[in-house]
């Protein structure tokens, strides 16, 4: 079980290695949304994404407990960078299984942190098979992208900071995060539950990878009817672990189209002058699509990352 003490200890553990990222607002976007939005800018985080938090919390404990002589994981990009970065901090080799279709900018970053990449087909089965082979060959310890309490507790620290800095005196009505495998959403919902229990947590999900909304409704892990979205970081299905936390603490999951994701991404680039990747824009897209559900509210949004391939912008 992840308690508030677990999250606080995770924050203390990773604090020397991370940024306490800025929270930004924008009048134009507030006017468009009809609400007061506070953006937690994890695109400014080490490795360019919130994933540094969970990766560090897990890897630091693997090293401290002497659980293995190497680290492995599978990831399409940001968690790969997080684990490679964290492994470098503790002096352990890292073996990262990445889909051959993962953005080149993310592969280059992983190699830049000194990790070895093992490419695979872009399916969950291929990713998991690749990790099993690495573990058998090297004795590496798996740091799963989301199905790991240590990773979830690390991700929760982003919302802990957001609430400490902007959400405890005048409480947020809603906090939004995107959902892929559910590690961030689980951590977001747990931190909110412990620190601001009257605040709703809502997820945004691409229509082209809409498994979490089905799982949320049925109570069992479902697969998306089809996978076709620009939000490459949100293509993974939930785990039993993340689904249980999400069903306990998340109010609803809203889906958005790729066109809506791209429009929200462009709005942030143009009006806030900051770089975000498509997956990052999903919660804002959900607010803009469902303005009637958020009118007049104080809303926190986790901007998850900015590791976008600048040579393949969608606008």
TrEMBL record:
Top-rank taxon, per record: Bacteria
Cofactor: pyridoxal 5'-phosphate
GO biological process: D-serine biosynthetic process
Domain Tryptophan synthase beta chain-like PALP span(s) in chain numbering: 15-305
Membrane-spanning parts: none
CDD domains attached to this UniProt entry: Thr-dehyd
Record keywords: Lyase, Pyridoxal phosphate
Entries under InterPro entries matching the protein: ACCD_DCysDesulf, TrpB-like_PALP, TrpB-like_PALP_sf
Molecular function terms from GO: ATP binding; carbon-sulfur lyase activity; D-serine ammonia-lyase activity; L-serine ammonia-lyase activity; magnesium ion binding; pyridoxal phosphate binding; serine racemase activity; threonine racemase activity
Family classification: Belongs to the ACC deaminase/D-cysteine desulfhydrase family. Belongs to the serine/threonine dehydratase family.
Name the UniProt record assigns to this protein: Pyridoxal-phosphate dependent enzyme
Organism the protein comes from: Spirosoma aureum
């Amino acid at each position: 079980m992840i308690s508030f003490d677990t999250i606080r200890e995770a924050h203390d553990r990773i604090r020397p290695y991370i940024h306490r990222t800025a929270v930004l607002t924008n009048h134009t976007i507030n006017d468009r949304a009809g609400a007061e939005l506070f953006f937690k800018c994890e695109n400014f985080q080490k490795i360019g994404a919130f994933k540094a938090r969970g990766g560090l919390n897990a890897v630091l404990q693997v090293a401290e407990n002497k659980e293995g002589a190497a680290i492995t994981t599978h990831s399409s990009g940001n968690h790969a960078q997080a684990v490679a970065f964290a492994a470098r901090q503790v002096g352990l080799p890292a073996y990262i299984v990445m889909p051959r279709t993962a953005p080149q900018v993310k592969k280059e970053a992983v190699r830049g942190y000194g990790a070895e990449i093992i490419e695979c087909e872009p399916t969950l089965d291929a990713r998991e098979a690749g990790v099993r082979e690495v573990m058998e060959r090297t004795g590496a310890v798996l740091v799963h992208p989301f199905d790991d309490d240590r990773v979830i507790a690390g991700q929760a620290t982003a919302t802990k900071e957001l609430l400490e800095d902007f959400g405890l005196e005048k409480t947020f009505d809603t906090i939004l995060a995107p959902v892929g495998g559910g590690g961030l959403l689980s951590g977001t919902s747990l931190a909110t539950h412990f620190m601001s229990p009257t605040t709703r947590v809502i997820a945004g999900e691409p229509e082209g990878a809409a498994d979490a909304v089905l799982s949320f409704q049925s109570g069992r892990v479902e697969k998306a009817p089809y996978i076709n979205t620009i939000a490459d970081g949100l293509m993974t299905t939930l785990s039993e672990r993340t689904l249980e936390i999400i069903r306990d603490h998340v109010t609803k999951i809203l889906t958005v189209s790729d066109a809506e994701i791209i429009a929200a991404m462009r709005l942030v680039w143009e009006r806030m002058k900051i770089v975000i990747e498509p997956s990052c824009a999903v919660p804002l897209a959900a607010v803009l699509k469902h303005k009637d559900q958020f009118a007049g509210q104080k809303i926190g949004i986790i901007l998850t990352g900015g590791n976008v391939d600048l040579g393949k912008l969608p606008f």
